[in-house]
Amino acid sequence: MNSIHTLDTPSLLLNLNQLENNLNEIRDIAKQNGIEWRPHIKTHKSVNIAKMQLEKGACGITVAKLEEAEVMAAAHISNILIAYPLAQPKKLERLKKLSSQTKVILAIDSFEQAEIVNTIFSGCSEPLEVWIKVNSGLNRCGIEMEEIVELAQKIKTMKPLALTGIFTHAGHSYAASSQEQIEKIAEDEANSVIQSAELCEQAGIPIQHRSVGSTPTFKYGAKIKGITEIRPGNAAFYDMCQVGLGVAETKQCALTVLASVVSKKKDRIIFDTGSKALSLDQGAHGNKSVVGYGRVINHPEITIERLSEEHGVASFKDTLLEMNDTVEIIPNHSCVVANLFEEYIVHRDGEVVERWKVEARGMMK
Which DSSP string corresponds to 167-186? Predict the structure, then answer.
């Protein structure tokens, strides 16, 4: 086995021990609360990691885009929630083909979309399973709660569709300024789903699945009675955004970028990790605790202050780093960084054990 510090840079490193710890924690939280776990794979985009999650008890997976679902299905992964309101006929034709091969669930968030999906899937031998997405405060996709019964009733008249769940995503938790605010968002997130489901059931429409769980909120949402499923994605890796929110500690961050010092000046040090390796993401606007563009492990004297495409420019105070020294950098947003590399270099305690492809990187359609 080789040490990670013998690798060329920049390289995407995955600490297998910490990944396993993070996945085990999510599994245990779901098990303790008697609910299911459907991780979002847009964080890692990896068949190997998705299969690890399923082996540890996940009931299925969540994806953001249809291409991600196709990649995972090609690897014989089933029970896939596409948490995105597909409406383009050419995409729905692809979805129709995919649904004939494996179990998929589609997000519905409007009357218009439901009509289009209904038309495309007319004549299919089996109905397409759909979940309604409700807006719980992110104000992105998602129908408002006061409209959900009407939408559910409309879907129930559509023979090609089978409504079985309601879900939401509290992405605004990434802008929280305190732990108390995260807990309040988690409570609102869960209640938006539970109350929506109750309204549907009062109208005679049973709702089997009630799903929540951004990474900042899933530990709280899992405990709320009436929730049946959590869907954390980033919690597989964590990152500096989560550390800034107080959701994780740096030691829990499983993903790092190996960088080399390419130049050192009297007032700055330059790494070979620019925006193509670390991204320009500094977290949500309300999260003021993210400093710079990633944390250099074991070097608190260094702050990465700016990125160009190939250069990470950092300030320092009395650093011992010199030309060609290597460091590990915890990225601000691991989901974005994973999409920038073709492979994970998987290691245990700094010794390389495997290389895993990032099969769903760049899958945006």
Answer: E---GGGGG-SSHHHHHHHH
